[in-house]
Amino acid sequence: MKLMIGTAQFGRQYGIANKSGIVTAHEAFNIIKMAIDNGINWVDTAHDYGNSEKLIGILSKRLDTKLNIVTKAFLGHLNPQPGVIIPSIKNTLDDLGVDEVYGLLIHNPADLMGDQADAVFNVLNEVVHFGMARKIGVSVSTPEQAEIITENYPLDIVQVPCNLFDQRFIQSGTIDRLASYGLEIQVRSIFLQGLFFMELENLSEHFNEVKPLLVKLHKVAEDNGVSVRKLALEYVKAIDNVERIIVGVDSSKQFKELIDDYNAPFDVSIDFKQFAVNDERFVNPGNWGCGGWCDEV
């Protein structure tokens, strides 16, 4: 199973469809335990996700399990020198309760595209050298960012947004090119922060242009006897070269339904290209004007 638990909701209000707020510690425990019980031991987090890293550290200790953790950090605002950043990464590891994470990703791709990019990359290599991370990488928002950064720096992991509406990384051939370089591809935002599940009357005028497509999406799902969540999962499951599929949930009940959908057979033929929007006004949550809580992660 390629699923990886996204934990933005563990530490902050996240998602346009999130009505329950920050996930409680008790519910986070239930989610992680359910993941482990289903053979899922991959977790995605970030220093920017509030207390998420600390909570993961506490829960993994309580469950007495070793998780494969990928965390993300903003480094460009710091003096990108080992003496400054290494202690910051050490604090992250202490919060997570581990000596090493599976992956350390740059959260803001601009950190690997600006004047400090070389220094930031050198620090990433130091992190690996000191045994604090097995792999290094970047989380990007556009194919152009991925292409520029991976041409300049030999990374291990690239995390990209990909979903029924946002097919830019597929249609541009970027995922295939990244994989040809030997990069591990992880996809996020597969439900577009819950936009696919929203009632149309609860959407702002910003989404007027895509409301007809949302109606179409729900009709296609209904006509084929499957959930919208199932369609969203099957779209990313079918993409070649994707190693991990990051999913965020608000409750263990929701996670159970997601796992059931993931494992359920899918024997219908659907042209997923009909749902492509690829307009950054709609596929990049950072452009939704929601005060920061829906920024790309």
From TrEMBL:
InterPro entries registered for this protein in UniProt: AKR (IPR020471), AKR2_Oxidoreductase (IPR053135), NAD(P)_OxRdtase_dom_sf (IPR036812), NADP_OxRdtase_dom (IPR023210)
Segments forming domain NADP-dependent oxidoreductase: 2-267
A molecular function (GO) term: oxidoreductase activity
Pfam families listed in its UniProt record: Aldo_ket_red (PF00248)
Protein name: NADP-dependent oxidoreductase domain-containing protein
Native organism: marine sediment metagenome
